UniProtKB/TrEMBL annotation:
Source organism per UniProt: Pyxidicoccus parkwayensis
Swiss-Prot/TrEMBL TPR repeat ranges: 407-440, 441-474
SMART domains: TPR
Top-rank taxon: Bacteria
Protein name as it appears in the record: Serine hydrolase
Residues forming coiled coils: none
Residue ranges of domain Beta-lactamase-related in the record: 35-346
Length: 501
């Protein structure tokens, strides 16, 4: 779907992704969008570009399901993941203006079916809608893994209490509200419950009536699970290495935080509406004054729902099981791009593709993100080999050129290769990690897991013991040692919390 005049521009975007410099090679490697997708084993990508308040093109690439033949089209549904949050915020502020609730009252005054436990952190400062939408309410639970299609689904109160069958911790306040920005999907789930308690309607209906239908978004729904009638239109999630998500996707009863199914075109229409509202050209969802408030920093990096960058840049990223996506928009010009992928590897491509679109359309407000060390080392491993990647990493660490380098870079790369079944490479990477970061307990924990997966029990035990020596609170190492038949001696301090990977 494109204006005829856009054909040449689309072709330039597809061939204009930033090249990669490989040590020892004279010319940078240039890959087309299709080649990038093959490199990262991303089955499908969908893109929509908008300029001056209008959609100018939308195009699908690849297939809806790994190993399948059904093509991705502009109407293929993807999970928007955390881009669900700012769309939820649009409905929440709509009802602020309708007088149903306010931005700054205690959320507990509007919760009916469940109450957020008050504690020492909420004695003077309260959890409010403004703070929840700007991730500054002090609430816990960063994100949600979702539920396999065959698993029982918890109610929202069960999710908030961390009660079975919920698979996440309870949502609680452990920072004084208003004192710190900390991303919290748990906080947005509180907003979901407040809205359904007050409006006495199912959340998908609230969103349809308030945002989706008024904006004419025909390919968007918050229904979870996805209705059977819409399933044929949906892309299937894919893990690193191209393995399909069992059951095609996960289900997210945390709808406000992660439940939106949509297309890049519909996300573009949402961003266009926000820009028009800010300019005083539309009041279909909110007033000009409210739009300006949404796009004003309420906390360190968030307005009301949207992440805010430099200047007039607003948007959000999204990461669900097997799906990755991003929305980048500029409120003054009404321009931007939405990209959705059906792969965990999608995040490796999103910034590069966004930058190619921004360069083609000359968006002066766009500030490219510096390439993360993880992406660079991963690219070298894919385009050349693991030895080249590790040599680059060692040089960068030795010379101090990679100020952002951390043990997580190689840890993530090792896990990725482990998931892709490349055992020799995974072990090589994780061994290098403990060599470069000998005081990092999690590096030894991860190497222990790799050895365990490889069936090298003695090496696994040795590395788990080293991890526990460095971090006596590493509960995972304790569990793994018990599983391997190497229980701890009575002199080992008792663990008190889990070490995350």
């Amino acid at each position: 779907m494109a204006r005829p005049s856009e054909a040449a521009r689309i072709a330039r975007v597809e061939s204009g992704l930033a090249p990669v410099e490989i040590p020892g090679e004279k010319e940078p490697r240039r890959l087309s969008l299709q080649q990038w997708m093959e490199l990262y084993k991303i089955p499908g990508v969908s893109v929509a570009v908008f300029e001056k308040g209008a959609l100018v093109w939308a195009k699908g690439y690849g297939v809806k399901q790994t190993g399948g033949t059904a093509p991705v089209t502009p109407d293929t549904l993807f999970q928007a993941a955390s881009i669900s949050k700012p769309v939820t915020a649009l409905a929440a502020v709509h009802y602020v203006e309708a007088g149903k609730w306010s931005l700054d009252e205690n959320i507990n005054d509007k919760l009916i079916s469940w109450k957020l436990p008050e504690n020492e952190y909420t004695q003077t400062e309260k959890v409010t809608l403004r703070r929840l939408l700007s991730h500054s309410a002090g609430t816990t639970v960063h994100g949600f893994p979702g539920y396999a299609v065959t698993e029982p689904l918890p109610t929202v109160p069960q999710i908030l209490d961390g009660a079975k069958p919920a698979n996440t911790a309870p949502v609680r306040v452990d920072l004084v509200p208003g004192t710190k920005t900390r991303y919290s999907g748990g906080g947005i789930t509180l907003v979901q419950l407040m809205m359904t308690d007050q409006l006495k309607k199912p959340f998908p209906r609230i969103m349809r009536e308030t945002v989706l239908a008024p904006l004419g978004l025909k390919h968007s729904t918050y229904e979870q699970p996805l209705p059977a009638a819409l399933a044929p239109m949906a892309a299937s999630g894919t893990y690193f290495g191209g393995t399909p998500v069992e059951g095609k996707w996960h289900v997210y009863p945390e709808m406000a935080a992660a439940g939106l199914w949509t297309t890049p075109s519909d996300l573009s229409r949402i961003a266009i509406e926000v820009s028009k509202a800010k300019a005083g050209k539309s009041t279909r969802v909110m007033s000009q004054a409210m739009a300006k408030q949404m796009l004003t920093k309420q906390s360190e990096s968030f307005g009301l729902g949207f992440a805010l960058q430099a200047g007039d840049d607003f948007g959000h990223g999204g990461s669900n099981e097997g799906f990755q996506c991003v929305l980048t928009a500029f409120s003054d010009s009404g321009s931007g791009v939405a990209i959705m992928t059906n792969s965990d590897s999608g995040f490796l491509l999103l910034d590069r593709l966004t930058a190619a679109v921004a360069a083609e359309y000359g968006w002066k407000s766009y500030v490219p993100h510096p390439e993360r060390p993880f992406i660079q080392v991963d690219l070298l491993a894919r385009l050349k080999d693991v030895d080249t990647a590790l040599a680059w990493y060692r040089t960068a660490k030795r010379d101090g050129n990679g100020g952002a380098l951390s043990a997580d870079d190689l840890n993530n790369l090792g896990y990725q290769r482990l998931k892709e079944g490349q055992m020799a490479d995974a072990l090589k990477i994780l061994k290098a990690n403990v060599e470069l970061y000998p005081e990092n307990a999690n590096a030894y924990d991860s190497l222990g897991e790799a050895y365990m997966t490889a069936g090298q029990q003695a090496d696994a035990i040795a590395n788990y013991k080293k991890s526990l020596e460095l971090d006596p609170k590493n509960l995972n190492a304790v569990k793994m040692l018990e599983k391997l038949g190497a229980p701890l001696s009575t002199s080992t301090p008792a663990p008190s919390s889990a070490q995350s990977h």
